[in-house]
Design goal:
Length: about 450
């Protein structure tokens, strides 16, 4: 009889994933999603102004191309609400598969789009629709990957295991810029702009297959299964989290704001600032350090390696001293880094631009890494997918959706010092949000209310 009861209990116990397998699967999945996301950003800076917009007004085409970046940021909270609803209702695993397919198929279709010369205004309209598709996919991706990693982590190591989905960002950045660098080196900048830009988008179909295989082999999170068996699931997770847990959403949003502003100043604004853009200079924008595009892409590859290394370091530190104390220290350093921006870029050389990117990516990694642990820790299990995803993606609107365009305009009026102040002010907002929360390092994810 006792043996029968033990067997039944073992049968009822949710199957647990191997934490190492979960860490790898979450890292591979987010790397694929961020690869898709970043190849769009690279193409928007390098290519799309000539392929999807009229060439009659070059400066307007550049700004329009960059403005399409913002569409995904505004779509991301919608994606987090949509996928968060199903992630909290039917589980993390199925929802992560759906988010991967949404992002991947949108990316592949971008690589097949006709150009402005071929179909006119329909080209940018279709580009915008697919960019929104990318935003929806990534909006649902991050929260699920962070939860799968942290809900399966061993005790005392949630921040460390949470860094694995965070590593998807630098790995995706490296892959995206590496592909563009290799293609440009192989066929030349002219062919890259004319047709070869499509190759990175079409390659995404191979990555989708890899990501699907990794995710379909996982079990559902035992934390979610336990909440489900205890009847803790809610009928409308998104409305519940917005009504009852709006405070941690606001806190999480502003905690993440400086991270986003820093990243897009480095990868988009500084790329434009560093290159020679005669059409922008003619329109009154003080730009153009004359650094070749492929040189800057090489700088981003180095930066991505630094970014990834310091993401890993951050998980160890945040588990030892706590998320709050760790992030307060790093965010304070980002504030000072913003004020020091003119020292790197005012009369920048290739060496000083590389130095700016290396220091910035180091700070980015130290700040970004613990977020996959901290944001989920702010919410109870039954609304954790929705809450963490919404906070993360609202931060994208606050900190990243228009960061590049705002930085360009500030630079026009106030110079590079003004751009640095813009970064420092956002770091100040993040510090205020960090001071408003309690430490979450030692809480149980089952005990968050």
């Amino acid at each position: 009889m006792s043996h029968t009861l033990d067997t039944a209990a073992a049968h009822d116990e949710p199957l647990r994933n191997n934490p190492h397998k979960v860490a790898l699967a979450s890292m591979v999945g987010t790397a694929i999603e961020f690869y898709d996301y970043y190849i769009y950003a690279a193409a928007a800076v390098l290519v799309f102004n000539t392929q999807f917009f009229s060439k009659e007004h070059p400066s307007a085409a550049i700004l329009l191309s960059l403005s399409t970046l913002a569409l995904a940021f505004f779509a991301r909270p919608i994606g987090s609400a949509l996928f968060g609803h199903f992630g909290d209702k039917i589980g993390r695993k199925k929802t992560l598969v759906a988010s991967l397919l949404t992002m991947g198929l949108s990316t592949v279709l971008i690589g097949l789009l006709p150009t402005y010369e071929q179909i006119g205004i329909w080209a940018p309209l279709m580009l915008c629709v697919l960019r929104i598709g990318q935003g929806l996919g990534l909006g649902g991706e991050w929260g699920g990957a962070a939860l799968v990693a942290t809900e399966n982590a061993p005790p005392g190591k949630r921040a460390w295991y949470g860094t694995f989905p965070q590593l998807g960002a630098p790995i995706g950045l490296f892959m995206a810029n590496g592909v563009f660098f290799a293609i440009s080196a192989a066929v030349g900048p002219e062919a890259l702009v004319a047709w070869a830009w499509r190759i990175p988008f079409l390659l995404s179909i191979v990555l989708i297959a890899v990501g699907l295989y990794m995710r379909l082999t996982l079990h559902e999170s035992h934390v979610f299964k336990a909440a489900e068996s205890e009847g803790k699931k809610v009928g409308a997770p998104v409305s519940t989290v917005l009504c009852k847990h709006y405070k941690p959403i606001v806190q999480g949003t502003f905690i993440m704001a400086a991270t986003y502003v820093l990243f897009y100043i480095m990868t988009a604004f500084v790329q434009i600032y560093s290159k020679s853009k005669p059409e922008l200079s003619a329109a009154g924008y003080p730009m153009g350090l004359g650094i070749p595009a492929n040189t800057f892409t090489g700088f981003l590859l180095i930066g991505a390696v630094v970014f990834g290394a310091f993401v890993s370091v951050s998980g160890i530190g945040a588990d030892k001293i706590g998320r709050r104390r760790w992030l307060i220290g790093v965010t304070s350093a980002i504030l000072l880094f913003g004020l020091a921006m003119p020292l790197f870029l005012q009369h920048g050389s290739p060496a000083s631009v590389l130095g700016f990117l290396v220091v910035g990516m180091m700070l980015m990694g130290l700040n970004f890494g613990p977020m996959a642990a901290l944001l989920p820790e702010l919410f109870p299990t039954e609304v954790r997918y929705s809450g963490a995803s919404l906070a993360y993606n609202f931060a994208a609107i606050v900190g990243a959706s228009v960061a590049t365009l705002v930085a360009i305009e500030i630079n026009k009026s106030f110079g590079i010092f003004g751009v640095g102040v813009y970064l420092a002010l956002n770091a100040g907002l993040s510090l205020l949000a960090l001071f408003s929360i309690h430490e979450t390092k030692d809480i149980s994810l089952m005990d968050v209310h």
